[in-house]
Design brief:
Blueprint lengths: L9 H16 L4 H16 L3 E8 L4 E11 L2 E4 L10 H9 L2 E4 L22 E9 L2 E10 L7 H40 L3 E5 L5 E4 L1 H6 L5 H7 L3 H4 L5 H13 L1 E10 L5 E12 L5 E10 L1 H52 L7 H26 L7 E4 H12 L7 E7 L5 E4 L1 H17 L5 E12 L1 H6 L6 E10 L6 H6 L17 H11 L3 E6 L5 E8 L24 E5 L3 H13 L3 E5 L2 H11 L3 E7 L8 H11 L4 E6 L18 E3 L4 H13 L10 H4 L18
Parallel strand pairs: 13-15, 19-20, 19-21, 21-22, 22-23
Antiparallel strand pairs: 1-2, 1-6, 2-3, 4-5, 5-6, 7-8, 7-11, 9-10, 10-11, 12-14, 15-16, 16-18, 17-18
Helix pairs in contact: 1-2, 1-4, 2-4, 9-10, 9-15, 11-12, 12-15, 17-18
Length: 723
């Protein structure tokens, strides 16, 4: 049998292997290595067909790297082969070792081979050898001829020697190629990601960054960003103090998710970003760098701001709508009250000597108190302001609201209240809670056009983890629950599913806006609570409001404030500033009746003109907050306090004194009295302000009022005026 090389010729074999080693060392891709082998083996064996496949034991597949066949005297590369399971012959080679296959005429496909290349004719002489590395068999190589008996055993040994020589090189080349492809994929992801990606040092420099992060921060390239930023805290963070918190969390947990911050761009403008980061540490557990993914959330922040603005408008509209629903009943009550006041006043002005004047005066006073309560409720409903969180007893609030609710409820609807707890204290805005109760009451009323029963039930419930998992809006802990139960028409399931949607209503056109329940839902969510609905068509509806409990409320002390005199009278001089002439006259009479000297002014501007003449005599300023001519009561107090540090101030208004920013802390009974007030209440707060040390400097710290500075002497400007 003829052979094409004699391996025993050491010099020629050494030359072949030297050439193979040199050429393989420069190969960078498995295909390049396969072409080197095809050249070497063609010179050695004059093959017609060449095959090199790599094998993966993990997937049990062979991956054709190079298949060449001689077609009409020309070498043709067949590159359309895909990875596949080994044929029975290939598996025999992979498991058993090199094999020589010599077929006799007529030559046919057999021995479990798989047709490759030119499948119109089979090879007659075939050699297969294993490619091995230190882990085992990693591929096979085959050279074939169409001639019968073209190869012998010596040829097979030479082919196996070549395969073994190139095994490690092929594995190295394949690993390098996989690494290169992996790096290319990572680079593509890094460069073209739709989020920012970076590596930063603990000291605050960018080590790497991608183009998207550079774009977020206003730079044209990552290189420009890295070169321009020397201190992330100073140059990127709008609030540099947040950087310390970020680093502290990274150091403690090794991870930060969704860290939101306002970032400064290269042109000085700002944007909002969310950072998720992980610390990469060395063997000593020291942070080498911080790897971050950054998402721009400016659009989301704008949407949240707009949503909050719309929610605020919605709640304001709801309060006004509630006022409108109450208007008829309130007007009826006011007419009754005015009739009582006017009637008894006429009797007092008459000449009937047998008239019980004390009884008439008491009835007038009682009617005035009723009018004050109605006014207070109307103001709380219509007031447009941020949440004023305070400790609220839900039971007391509900009981105080029931008389007002009765004005909106027809006589054929009975109201009941069930109290299953005596401790119903919340941290809440009472005006907002009143809006929730009014809206739920209105909804229940409309569900009972033919009458029925409206039940308010107040109870305390502990929500556990199992309950919270079943209701995605619920939270664990102690809660106060207010249920509003009607015996009305009930709702279908599809209506319940949409009941809190804004503008969704089942009422006829013109009979409802569809905003009441959505406003109630929004208020309850703002207070970290939720609402549950139970209803059966034809069997009534139950709305249950869950709000976090706040514990027992401290009972007010029966003792007067420290330093408060037992007597209400005094001899000091009071500067009274009130734009309503009738009220100013009444207040002046009350003060003079208490022994005080009174200097009157109708506006803040007039009071400033009076001050130079009487300033040294004036011990207390009693002023309305809202006044004409551009000088409010707060601004007047600020100016006069600047002229006399010992001046005491009492404010009076029918509005909420906290409705706007102010430099004063308003304390009922200390330096503030709400209109309308009784004579003894006025004398009490005046005496307290003069005698109680707590009323001396009731300034809000400037850092709270305006966010700047800490000087005691406040500035006079827009924030100081109540308007």
């Amino acid at each position: 049998m003829e052979t094409h090389i004699h391996p025993e010729l050491g010099d020629e074999r050494h030359k072949v292997f030297t050439t193979l080693g040199r050429r393989l060392s420069s190969a960078r891709h498995p295909l390049e290595a396969a072409r080197v082998l095809s050249d070497i083996t063609r010179n050695l064996f004059a093959w017609d067909v060449f095959l090199l496949e790599l094998y993966s034991a993990e997937t049990d597949q062979v991956d054709p790297i190079l298949i060449m066949d001689t077609v009409e005297g020309c070498l043709v590369v067949f590159d359309d082969q895909k990875p596949s399971k080994p044929s029975s012959l290939e598996r025999r080679i992979l498991e058993g070792g090199p094999e020589l296959v010599l077929r006799k005429p007529p030559v046919t496909f057999s021995d479990g081979t798989r047709a490759i290349g030119d499948t119109s004719r089979p090879s007659a002489s075939l050699m297969f050898a294993q490619i091995r590395d230190e882990m085992g068999v990693c591929g096979l190589i085959s050279v074939q001829r169409y001639d019968v008996d073209a190869y012998g055993q010596v040829d097979l040994e030479t082919l196996q020697a070549l395969a073994e020589f190139c095994g490690e090189a092929l594995v190295r080349i394949r690993a390098q190629e996989e690494l290169r492809q992996s790096e290319e994929r990572f680079r593509a992801i890094f460069e073209h990601a739709v989020v920012g990606i970076s590596q930063t040092s603990v000291e605050g420099r960018f080590l790497t960054a991608n183009l998207e992060l550079a774009r977020m921060l206003g730079y044209s390239s990552a290189k420009e960003l890295i070169g321009a930023i020397h201190s992330i805290r100073e140059q990127v963070y709008v609030d540099g103090d947040l950087r310390a918190g970020f680093l502290k969390q990274i150091a403690q947990d090794g991870l930060v998710r969704g860290f939101e911050m306002e970032a400064r761009r290269s042109d000085g403008s700002t944007t909002w970003i969310a950072v998720s980061a992980r610390a990469v540490r060395d063997a000593d557990h020291q942070i080498v760098y911080i790897q971050s993914v950054v998402e721009e959330i400016a659009a989301r922040k704008r949407a949240e701001s707009e949503l909050e603005r719309l929610r605020s408008q919605l709640l304001h509209i709801q309060r006004l709508e509630s006022v409108g629903q109450l208007a008829a009943g309130v007007a009826h009550d006011f007419n009754n009250i005015l009739t009582i006041i006017q009637g008894y006043t006429s009797l007092l002005q008459g000449s009937d000597e047998n008239l019980d004047k004390a009884d008439c005066l008491e009835r007038i006073a009682d009617a005035s108190r009723r009018a004050a309560n109605l006014t207070r409720h109307l103001l709380s409903f219509s007031r447009r302001q941020a949440r004023d969180l305070q400790e609220v007893d839900l039971i007391q609030l509900l009981e105080g609201l029931i008389p007002v609710l009765q004005r909106t409820i027809p006589e054929n609807i009975a109201i009941r209240v069930e109290k299953e707890t005596s401790d119903a204290i919340l941290h809440a805005d009472p005006a907002m809670l009143e809006t929730v109760i009014v809206n739920l009451t209105t909804n229940a009323r409309d569900a009972m056009p033919s009458g029925g029963t409206l039940l308010f039930r107040c109870e305390r419930r502990m929500i556990d983890g199992d309950y919270a998992r079943l209701n995605r809006e619920a939270s664990e802990g102690d809660h106060i629950c207010l249920s509003v139960v009607d015996s009305g028409s009930g709702m279908e399931v599809r209506t319940i599913q949409r009941v809190f949607e804004p503008f969704f209503t089942t009422k006829d056109v013109g009979k409802g806006t569809g905003l009441g329940l959505s406003a109630a839902y929004g208020i309850v969510k703002q207070h970290k609570g939720w609402i549950e609905v139970e209803s059966v068509k034809g069997c009534g509806t139950t709305f249950t409001v869950f709000l976090p409990a706040a514990g027992k409320i401290a009972l007010p002390s029966e003792e007067p404030p420290p330093g408060m005199a037992a007597a209400l009278e005094g001899t000091e001089t009071v500067l009274l500033v009130e734009d309503d002439a009738s009220l100013r006259s009444l207040t002046s009479k009350v003060l003079r009746g208490g022994g005080y000297s009174v200097i009157e002014a109708s506006t803040g501007s007039e009071a400033l003109k009076v001050w130079p003449k009487y300033g040294t005599e004036i011990a207390l300023l009693l002023t309305d907050i809202v006044m004409p001519e551009g000088v409010s009561g707060c601004e007047l107090a600020l100016r006069l306090k600047g002229l006399s540090d010992d001046l005491r101030v009492v404010f009076s208004t029918g509005y909420n004194p906290k409705a706007n920013d102010s430099y004063f802390l308003f304390k009922e009974g200390i330096n503030f009295i709400e209109k309308p007030y009784r004579a003894e209440a006025l004398l009490s707060v005046v005496r307290t302000a003069l005698d109680c040390e707590a009323s001396r400097n009731e300034f809000r710290p400037e850092s709270e009022a305006s966010g700047v500075g800490s000087e005691r002497s406040p500035k006079i400007g827009r924030n100081a005026a109540m308007g």
